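At your convenience, could you comment on the folded chain following this short note?
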Amino acid sequence: MSRTLIHGGLVITASDEIHADVLIEDGRIAAVGAAGVLTADRTIDATGKYVIPGGVDAHTHMELPFGGTFASDTFETGTRAAAWGGTTTIVDFAVQSVGRPLREGLDAWHAKAEGNCAIDYGFHMIVSDVNQETLKEMDLLVEEGVTSFKQFMAYPGVFYSDDGQILRAMQRSAENGGLIMMHAENGIAIDVLVEQALARGETDPRFHGEVRKALLEAEATHRAIRLAQVAGAPLYVVHVSATEAVAELARARDEGLNVFGETCPQYLFLSTDNLAEPDFEGAKYVCSTPLRPKEHQAALWRGLRTNDLQVVSTDHCPFCFTGQKELGRGDFSKIPNGLPGVENRMDLLHQAVVDGHISRRRWIEIACATPARMFGLYPKKGTIAPGADADVVIYDPGAEQVISAETHHMNVDYSAYEGKRIIGRVETVLSRGVPVITEREYTGRAGHGVYTPRSTCQYLN
């Protein structure tokens, strides 16, 4: 295979910023060295650009069945859009159906993804039915590289686990090295509030945010932390959205517990103002945990700076406004929960660098290196260093763009960030040394991306 040299750029990783050339050979980084020292058959000029690791989005839902419909991105369209946004690895969620084995759900997701992905991918396992057989299967899945398991304190009757089921799964993960990921909202209490709101005639999308109260996110976060402490297990809380939930995570971490938190761009850049948009437009912004009032954003940014929150993923779960979100006209509880975002994450976080919320290295840390370490992919993914996969993005920090459904590549009919002007744009993307985006043109193909087994969490003390 030919050697490729990326010349003249500023190489940024979670730990370093250095003007250097990057040599790629056989799909991997062969060397990082002083400009002019390394040679190759093919040179990519990165003068004036950043050279960064491909993004690792550890929370996506391609083709997810939800609320009588399916997420609108397939593994093919979703991974292509991810590549356009500078993300070169996703970890998606395979779903166990109640009464069925974990293996059956995992096999179904393998079948959806295999041969269709533009970039590399792995799987977490959603555990919907904790029983003795499920617990044994968890051990087997960890051995073969599915090392994280998601449980839900929300959605009674669908994905919900009670405290006893959660404790059993946590005890198992404490033994087998797996990591429990938790959707922390008190779903039983929320269902009461939903029923009461609808009875009062409060049916608009904004009431989705009002019934899913921040206190019920904080309460569930606290409960999950204490159950994990009893089990002696690590815990990763997904899509943290509220000041009070961040406070619970910070307290647990101050106590020395192996507790981690993720937030998403929608909580950093959007708010209940979006949910309240008139003429049912607010339905576009219905997700769970829900968008919060703007004042919560400061706590999330602070958590990212202080490392009380470690990761920014997207929870990419797109539903078209026409025909899908519209299922909830007249009843907010029937709006499919989820937002599109896999293409926007790296750019929005670069805008956060421009705006002074985070540093460049922290951008790479929360979007590339930490998710790779958290989910057992580092240093194969998440960094630019000899031996790492050549998942590399040439990023133009000065280019301006306007986010729009007109120009995005996600298979969804709206953008959650429509009209937002941002600075910074992906120019070229290599996945294992193969150009999938070349100077703003898609040069990848379905099937290039391969399934990537993962080791266990690399942060456990």
About this structure: The first helix runs from residue 75 to 84. The chain has a mean pLDDT of 97.
